[in-house]
Amino acid sequence: MTSKEGTTMAVAVGAAAIAAGRAMAQTGSAAVDTAFETLKTYDWGSDREALKPIDQAIIASHGDPAARKALEKRLVDALAGGLSRSAQDYVCRKLKVVGTSQSVEALAALLPAQETSHIARYALERISDEKAAEAMRDALPKVSGKLKPGMIGSLGVRRDAKSVKPISGLLGDSDGQIAQTAAQSLGLIGTPAAAKELSAFAKKAPANMKIPVADACLVCAERLLADGERAAALALYRELNSGDQPAHVKVAAMKGMLAATTKQ
Amino acid sequence: MANQNSKPVKDRGTFHGRRAFLKATAASVTFPYLIPASAMGNAGATAPSNRIVMAGIGIGNMGRGDLGSFLGRDDVQYVAVCDVKRDVRDSQANRVNEKYGNKDCKAYRDFREVMVRGDIDAVHCATPDHWHAIIVIEACRNGKDIYCQKPETKTLREGKLMVDAARRYSRVVSGGSQRVLEDYRGIVDACWGGNKGIVKSINVNVGPLPTDCNKAGESVPDGFDWDMWLGPAPWAPYHPHRCSGSYSIDGTSWRSFKDYSGGGMTDWGAHHFGGATFAIDVRELEPEEVIFHNENGRKFATCRYPNGKLLHHNHPGRGNLDVEGTNEAGPVKPVPGYAGTGGIYGDFIDCVKTRSKPFRDIEYAVHTATVCHLFLIAYELERSLKWDTARQQFVNDDEANRLVDVARREPWVI
């Protein structure tokens, strides 16, 4: 496809999408009721357009807390109603945008299951309410296998300082994926407490953890520096600029030290 | 490949005046960029003949083309290919081995095995978009340079993380839109040559927007690691349209769907917006506002830059790459271009050797992708938004901030 053909095609399809959006904007509450009814039997292969009234209702309820709360409740109620995986997926995507503490309990119930853990985090990770983090912290010791690094990762992305202790306990996990994600998340959290745990583990890290831990320390140091914790950042950089670290790590640490000593 | 007939003026010194968010990455502004490769952990890694030792990740479709461009160079030694489709990786490994007349090129299913190889200097990545950030960051932390296909990011948050990783480890990280320089050179020359006067705005017509995919499942083809293809994206059943690498954006390829792409807005937008931001000289900036317009149901949007320049999307009555200027004699600046020979691929390889910033440095590529994501979020929420470039957050808009990133499927985290 040439650039010109691509542009022509793209503009044509874009215009069609805008026209479709305009039609959907005219949907009313009856259409929303129908969409929620459709959700009960919605599954892979169902027409996604049938749920568009809910999408539009979410957009329309921006700035209307009462309408938004009612919509959220309908989504939470739907989630408790025995939906297919595809319908659960849809609801969690919507709760990512409109979810509040009101949604947390229903989403937390999905965290331990292999099929729904991620899509529950899909909403919970982005809900700023502290209860969302609390739900994932509570689920952390209850999940195993692949689900555990997912939970660790979401807490890291949120920079959840209360997770430093439970995540630190997983640095030496026999499952390499869990151990690496634990290091990565401590780096993302980037507090002095996280730095202390990373620093202690770095001294005894097995060979396969050297790069992940070094990277976590560098990320942690950058976050400390950005947060004004210059001394803690410098300490991490100094540790990385020594010993048997790979050359690219040492150079990164040296750059960090320079930044830490010149940053106002 | 690049048009080498009109070799552009080199301008490697134009990286001052970055946005504040990059200043937060203090290392990137307090340490010289030009550091010998040997100091970057590459000592002994390059072949005795001074060739760059390379691997390819995601080598179907566009990746196959990228592989061919690198493989055709005398200064590259290809040693590994990686793809989640067995037939793709095996056929491309055979292609490389036939080229060299040996069996040295290994085929991998999992890119992490490629990343830990100490003998590889650089990789190129042409996976679907939802994988780009993870692979670029993993390359950087393993001391490898990387050429990443466009659009480089899938979410706003990914962009800063990728730039941070590149700067942290002093890696050469090139975005993958050759069209930015090669397709829009005429309009770039007009703007940078002062023919448009003081440039006020430019318009880009591109689409469509991405859609949700709810296609019913089918049997996974033999030799296709479906779980790895999905990677950080939400689980979904296999369907050939969900994962087809076709360049169509009509619901029959991954480029159409929100979980893997930003649709035409990012897929073609990476080219068009890349060219537009180059033409009006805002590559070093991010917009601080996206303004959503709905005029009698006709929706379009505008990004406003801190210097007042406007970047429109689908503005009524405006053509693609249509520049609005004062049309008087304007300031003249030399137009930057590729290093080395061989277009954008040669530019990357040359920069790997010299430790220079490539033409499509990841910072510029991310800024282009950021424009695309800002438009996507404004259209999704149907409202105007203010973007705090330093904090990489929307201003006073919790709902919009939830769309800055997505939770990744286990075990993937960035």
Automatic annotation (TrEMBL), chain A:
<feature type="signal peptide">
    <location>
        <begin position="1"/>
        <end position="25"/>
    </location>
</feature>
<dbReference type="InterPro" id="IPR011989">
    <property type="entry name" value="ARM-like"/>
</dbReference>
<keyword id="KW-0732">Signal</keyword>
<protein>
    <recommendedName>
        <fullName>HEAT repeat domain-containing protein</fullName>
    </recommendedName>
</protein>
<dbReference type="InterPro" id="IPR016024">
    <property type="entry name" value="ARM-type_fold"/>
</dbReference>
UniProtKB/TrEMBL annotation, chain B:
<dbReference type="Pfam" id="PF19051">
    <property type="entry name" value="GFO_IDH_MocA_C2"/>
</dbReference>
<dbReference type="GO" id="GO:0000166">
    <property type="term" value="F:nucleotide binding"/>
</dbReference>
<feature type="domain" description="Gfo/Idh/MocA-like oxidoreductase N-terminal">
    <location>
        <begin position="57"/>
        <end position="174"/>
    </location>
</feature>
<feature type="domain" description="Gfo/Idh/MocA-like oxidoreductase bacterial type C-terminal">
    <location>
        <begin position="217"/>
        <end position="293"/>
    </location>
</feature>
<dbReference type="InterPro" id="IPR043906">
    <property type="entry name" value="Gfo/Idh/MocA_OxRdtase_bact_C"/>
</dbReference>
<feature type="domain" description="Gfo/Idh/MocA-like oxidoreductase bacterial type C-terminal">
    <location>
        <begin position="346"/>
        <end position="413"/>
    </location>
</feature>
<dbReference type="InterPro" id="IPR000683">
    <property type="entry name" value="Gfo/Idh/MocA-like_OxRdtase_N"/>
</dbReference>
<dbReference type="InterPro" id="IPR006311">
    <property type="entry name" value="TAT_signal"/>
</dbReference>
<dbReference type="InterPro" id="IPR050463">
    <property type="entry name" value="Gfo/Idh/MocA_oxidrdct_glycsds"/>
</dbReference>
<dbReference type="InterPro" id="IPR036291">
    <property type="entry name" value="NAD(P)-bd_dom_sf"/>
</dbReference>
<protein>
    <submittedName>
        <fullName>Gfo/Idh/MocA family oxidoreductase</fullName>
    </submittedName>
</protein>
<dbReference type="Pfam" id="PF01408">
    <property type="entry name" value="GFO_IDH_MocA"/>
</dbReference>
